[in-house]
Amino acid sequence: xxxxxFTLFLLIAGIAAGETHSYTLQQVLEIAGRQxxxxxxxxxxxxxxxxxVRVAQDPFRPKVYGGSGLAYTYGYPNSIEGNAPSLFEVRxxxxxxxxxKSYQVAAAREVAHGAEYGVQAKTDEVAYQAADLFLTAxxxxxxxxxxxxxxxxxxxxxxxxxxxxxxxxxxxxxxKRARVDLAMSQQQIEGANLxxxxxxxxxxxxxxxxxxxxxxxxxxxxxxxxxxxTEEAAADTALRNNRELRAIQSNVLAKTLDLRGFxxxxxxxxxxxxxxxxxAKYNYEQYFQKFQRNNFQLGASxxxxxxxxxxxxxxxxxxxxxxxxxxxxxxQTRNRILTETRRSYDQWKKAESIRDLAFMxxxxxxxxxxxxxxxxxxxxxxxxxxxxxxxxxxxxxxxWYDAQTQVARAKFAILRQTGNLLxxxxxxxxxxxxx
Length: 435
Hints:
Layout: H1 2-16, E1 20-23, H2 25-35, H3 37-57, E2 63-67, E3 88-97, H4 99-167, H5 172-206, E4 214-217, H6 231-241, H7 243-263, E5 269-278, H8 284-287, E6 294-303, H9 311-377, H10 383-418, H11 421-425, H12 431-434
Helix pairs in contact: 2-4, 3-4, 4-5, 4-7, 4-10, 6-9, 7-9, 9-10
């Protein structure tokens, strides 16, 4: 008992150092999409991919360089790096026609699209993780409150057993059993509180808060969640909307464009070239019949590959290998999406069946309690029987709530696969709003 109290003391002390937030499921999913560290990292990857498009476009953007080629000349004015000595020079160049570079630009755009789908896939994954933690934390809190509500009944049973032992109407083992049940319930409450604190901490971390904070779930109406009407509709929607599959498809297209670029290495390239140079008169007039101070060239540089080496062919073969890997991964992803979606749909139907059975058991326990209360007033039922019926009803309430939680969890799994979890969460209202 001392160890349990000490653990609770440490728990309370740790919570006091942080902040407690209370959110509905809709708020949790919105905050997770904004603040989750994994989503933030995926957005940085997306930004990097977008900048990669600008890098790939660089050869098709004009660049201007200015400077001086002034040099001391003794004798004939030789060229330096292909340029005659000049007081000032300006040159520019850019690609006009370069198929390999054009394919690189298109591939970079597809990589950026894939990164965008990656952000959406990570957001869906984090949203499902946050929703699952929300349900579990809410379940632990309801379990703790239900068990706490059982303590008065258990205490009455223990008191009645103690009185019965004293009067001689009950055996000492009945008192011991009642006390064990009371201690067991107290231990379950402490365990539920510790579990609730853990899941509230994990939920805070998923939302981007420090581990010292806690996020307490507010009751939400999960009955308004809409799922696809049939298993086939859910599977079709999942294949259409799954962001992970779309990201792989973008990567396949990007790798295909890379392959085309490597194969286009044999095509000619055309570059715009322009240059202006201001010459000094010194030395030129001694070796040339005519001197001109201002000089410029404007034209196109055409390069026709004759021997291109083995690099482009090797890169093309590597791209082919990468394409085969991506196609295998895409097929694996499709199969996984179909199997997980169908499994989630089956789990949803199973959870609904268990929920309906739990409601029937709850309704039966409530009627049994009503009967025992009436019999107790007539002296035909003991207080122990009534309190035991109360405990049974309380357990049935807890089982029914757990069954409802499993139904909601199965629905979230379906919506995660179909990519509609965030949209469905916007239709969920808090308990206060639904009243």
